[in-house]
Amino acid sequence: MSSHACSGKYTRLIVFDMDSTLIDAETIDELAKAAGVGEEVAEITRRAMNGEMDYGEALRKRVLLLKGLSVKRAVEATMRIRYNPGAEELVCRVKSLGYITAMISGGFTLSADRVGEELGMDYVYSNELVVDRGVLTGEVRGPLLEH
Questions:
Q1: Which of 20, 27, 21, 65 is nearest to 43 (CA)?
Q2: Which helix (H) or strand (E) holds 91?
Q3: pTM metric for this prediction
Q4: What's residue 146's pLDDT?
Q5: DSSP 76-88
Q6: Which residue, 132, 24, 34, is CA-closest to 77?
Q7: Along the chain (147 residues), what's the average pLDDT of each consecutive run of 10 residues?
Q8: Where does 17-115 show beta strands of DSSP type E?
Q9: Residue 84 is part of a domain; what is its CATH number?
């Protein structure tokens, strides 16, 4: 036990999810629509939700379907996503109460970094879509591939 924990002083931390929590959509679904593979991605998501494949496998398969999507079109798709009602006010309120804020998302830096900056998050953790010459390669890397 650290001496800080015994001092009676506590740090307040609140952690948010991004997709369908702070924002009104799932980033992967919006990217899939932009790439013209919405139905295929939805089917993989359905199979994962039914326990037919694990999260990491499902994520990799869905991202592979995004191969060839330009970063420009991907960013445009994520810019259409809106905040859920009350999300901005909630984050503002907890920050005013002295909380450290973090956002952890199985989504992607492409949108999570922007959302985190706009909301004033102290920390943002998400996966990264691999890009080569302005186009998604269909690969993903990051800290949240296996949760």
A1: 65
A2: helix 87-96
A3: 0.88
A4: 59
A5: HHHHT--BPTTHH
A6: 34
A7: 56 95 97 98 97 93 98 97 98 97 95 98 97 98 70
A8: 100-108
A9: 3.40.50.1000
